[in-house]
Design brief:
Structural class: alpha+beta
Order of helices and strands: EEHEHHH
Strand content: 25-35%
Distance between the termini: 39 Å
Shape: globular
Strand order of the largest sheet: 2-1-3
């Protein structure tokens, strides 16, 4: 079964900040970010994907994206990615 809706988190290799998003085509979306076609990430390139979740239902995916943008969601993400954070020397 293909899960068509993706919530993703990308990280700027320039300033190490995160960007949270939603898409139905993750490869195309990341390429778009790195090509500078997204205003909010244009100056933060290059970007790399650090986390994604796939969903069957669009409303579930959008709800998850909204949660990841909250303080609780950001804390949860940092706990999940704690080894990645160590590798990239992410500031605390």
């Amino acid at each position: 079964m293909i899960l068509p809706f993706c919530v993703y988190v990308i990280q700027s290799e320039r300033d190490l900040k995160f960007y949270h998003g939603f898409t139905t085509n993750i490869n195309k979306r990341i390429a778009s970010h790195n090509a500078g076609k997204t205003r909010s990430t244009f100056k933060r390139r290059p970007l790399r994907i650090v986390y994604c979740e796939f969903f069957l239902n669009k409303k579930d995916a959008l709800r998850r994206e909204k949660y990841l943008k909250t303080n609780m969601g950001k804390r949860m993400l940092k706990l999940i990615l704690r080894e990645t954070m160590k590798e990239i020397n992410y500031p605390r």
